[in-house]
Amino acid sequence: MIVVVDNRELVTSGYESLFAREGVSTATFHSSEFRDWVETAPDADISAVEAFLLGDFDDRAGCPRVIRSRSTAPMIALSESRNLDGTLDLFAAGVDDVVAKPVHVKEILARVGAIRRRENAEATRTVVGEICVYQDGRDAEVAGKAMALPRRERRILEYLVSNRGRRVSKQQLFNAIYGIFDENVEENVIESHISKLRKKLKMRLGYDPVSSKRYLGYGIGVE
Fold first, then answer.
1. Phi, then psi, of 114 in degrees rounded to 5
2. Which GO terms describe its biological process (predicted)?
3. C-alpha span between 15 and 176 (Å, rounded)
4. Closest by CA position to 212, among listed 173, 180, 162
5. Which of 21, 22, 43, 30 is closest to 3 using CA atoms?
6. Using an 8 Å Cβ cutoff, are 156 and 166 in contact?
7. Structure letter (DSSP) for residue 122
8. Which terminus in the chain has less CB density within 10 A, N or C?
9. Under DSSP, is residue 169 helix (H, G, I), strand (E, B) or coil?
């Protein structure tokens, strides 16, 4: 999920639509609401955020400190004009990247992946048994071979592997895939995505690596 912060509804709704075309969920905020959300949101909601996209608003320079108190996700600031002093001020405030508008959402997603690789190369690769997941956009490897998956199934696999050894609830998976404020999608759709993913993994591995228990949730690498 990408969190977009901007005081202009035209901007936030535009990015919401563009990211949706790429299969990426968003949560949008006015700056007056954003700080309270970051400070009070449940950990499960914060952990679902893949990146923060900060538009142009008055108190933007104070956001990185607040965000970092809860999340390590990349922060990208959007610049309305090329201004060296403004760009340097944003980097000094703690953002990870500054991008001049207009910018395609595919470039934003590519920059998010690049930031993750720079920050911690080892963290982009997680192995659980015969499953290797990359956090930089590459296809997962299952039984030694790349496995191309639809974006939502891949995100579910990444989320399960990143939480290896413990169970996650259907609600947590829903938040990670569709965003915390998407009221147009039924939560039960997660069960359909997981079912398809499990069948594909079983065909490749010969067994189902995803454990599920009623009321407890789903997990990889758990008893």
1. -65, -40
2. regulation of DNA-templated transcription
3. 18
4. 173
5. 30
6. no
7. G
8. C
9. coil
Q: Two tokens at 195?
A: 């079912």
Sheet strands side by side (includes 145-147): 125-128, 131-134, 140-142, 145-147
And the tokens for 56?
């142009």
For residue 195, which phi and psi values (nearest 5 degrees)? -60, -45
Query: How does residue 171 score in pLDDT terms, banded at 50, 70 and 90?
Result: confident
How many of the other CB atoms lie within 10 Å of CB of 209?
20
pLDDT band at 98 (very low <50, low <70, confident <90, very high): very high
Amino acid sitting at position 134: Y
Residue 155's Cβ-side half-sphere holds a number of Cα atoms within 13 Å equal to 21
Which amino acid is present at 182? D
Pair of tokens at residue 105: 């959402």
Measured between alpha carbons, how far apart are the two ends of the chain, in Å? 29
- pLDDT for 19-66, tens place per residue? 988 888 899 999 999 999 999 998 888 988 989 999 988 889 899 999
Who's near 3: CB < 8 A, 6+ residues apart?
Answer: 26, 27, 28, 29, 34, 49, 51, 52, 53
Task: Characterize the bridge pairing of strands 51-54 and 2-5.
Answer: parallel
Asked if 94 and 106 touch (Cβ cutoff 8 Å), the reply is no
> For residues 132 and 124, is the Cβ–Cβ distance under 8 A?
no
**What whole-number distance in Å separates Cα of residue 29 and Cα of residue 42?**
16
> What predicted TM-score, i.e. pTM, was given to this entire model?
0.60
